[in-house]
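Service request form, structural biology core

Requester: graduate student, group of Dr. S.
Request type: structure prediction, single chain
Budget code: on file
Notes: please return the result as structure tokens.

Sequence provided:
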Amino acid sequence: MTDIEQRLIEAARDGEWLECAEPDTVVRAGLIRELLLGRHGELDPRGVRLSGARVEGTLNLNRIKASVGLAFHHCTIDEPIEARSASLPDLVFHGGSCAGIHADGVHVDGDLYLRQGVRISGSDTRSTVRLVGAHISGDFELSGTRITNTAGAALDCQGLRVDGQLCLRDGAQVIGHGDRGAIILQEARMGSVFEMSEVEITSTTGPAVIIDGVSISGYLALRGGSRIAGHCAKGAFSLVNAHISGHAELTDTEITNTAGIALDANGAQIDGHLFLRNRLLVTGHSEYAAVDLINARVGNILELADITITNAKGAALSANRARIGGAFALLGRTRLSACGDHPALNLVGTRIGGRFGCADEVEFEVEAESTPVLNFLDTAVDVSVRLPHPALCPDRGRGTACGHKTLVRLENLGYSSLASTWDWQEWLHVIRCHTPAYHASAYQRLAAVERAAGHDGTVRQILMAQQTDLRRRSPQSLGGPLTRWFHWLWGALAGYGYRARRTAAALLLVLVVAGAIGWSAGQVSTRPGHLVAERVVTAPVGAGTPCSTVELIGLGLDRGLPLAMTGMRARCDLDSASKKGQAFTAAIWLVQLAVWGLATLALAGYTNLVRKPG
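Core staff response, request fulfilled:
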């Protein structure tokens, strides 16, 4: 036994560090194993602590049950450490380098630390650091650590259980290669916090971080200028079906995937808030989305603030069929950019328990002018909706036409009210001018909101605008040209059944015309001594005698009214044998037809027979 090894034994008994002054000082790996097995007597609880040495050979700790911990300070370990199914009080690395750690099923009663710039590198097709199925009762921390693998995953922790915190911070770098990912934490369980701050995680041919199915009892935080970069169809940062009991916060971080989804939280459940904010930059290249929140569950607020999400192939963010318990807010200088025929924000079938709010500073960008920037198809918002005026219509238009072409899909969007910054006329303008096609549900929902507020006059205006838009943008649904013409006439004369007063006024006007026709007939002669309208033969005064003014007006009303008769025709009538009389007869028939039509419209307007969505 060498002098340095004897000194290590004595230091372990006293609980001291063995400081090796020479960088090439060699300590056999076998001796460290013997010490942990207790073959050199009882050791201090602080364990084996070695500084500045080179460990020679393979440190084989497989299945050992050590009573004291193990710590390395700026040591060089040329062979991977083998610690499968081992039991250790704690395991600590401060600086130095190591060829790998293979510790599937290891149980660490205390903490596992990789700190102060320790370098762990290898070329194993499985992984450089393997903690599959391991259990760490304390904290697991990578601080300033660099783990690389040129042939596979860098850190494989599938099924890992950490009772304390799992932290990567202070410039930690993890670089992997292959389709398995740089960091694999699938089905892991964490009793407290999962935090990544000031880290760089990269995979040139696969995902960067996979935490699919993870269970985190505390919160998830990714921040501090971190960089996550992957290259695969799967998410660069993937937390599919993950469950986070607290909040999730991604801030001041760059997440990039050059071949697929950047942030994939499909089916994830976050019981608290989900914050994406403060210089978060997400760049993807997927036909689905750069940020995938499809089928996700957020217990409280989902907030995007001062972030940029860009996708070179599809939507920026998709939260289809997601369930958000609180508000969904887009704030600050947030920018969502999509490509192809995909909207910037997809919310198909999404349920939002609070408000949906979008600040005016938020920007949406789509590739084609005909592509909606927002898709609210079948979305339900329990409270109010606020869209950004500048993104849709900077002029805040209220008319039936608009020079701005930005579109939004509102089919079957449900909401209880409009935000205070919007009025119903601005929202109606968006429906008429900034939706890709006519759809009745947008009008019906706005009408329902105004009806609940007691604004019946507003409701009638909205429903009339619906019918006008139906004829303008979906005329084929009305039928042939004659039906469309009648629909137009119906709107002009009766307000589509929502303006019965207009119908009544038109009916009165037609009756006035009928009376005027009757009076005019008494002023036109057919032959010498005879008029178009004159006394009939059976009248007390013979034929050819002019009718009085009252009789002529009564004649027009008698002819024009389909059912009610004044009885004037028994005294005064039209001479239908003459051509002029025939012309007046035809005119009165047209009046009668108009009276029939207007009476029908008036009746329908009062009985709601025509008040049906188009």
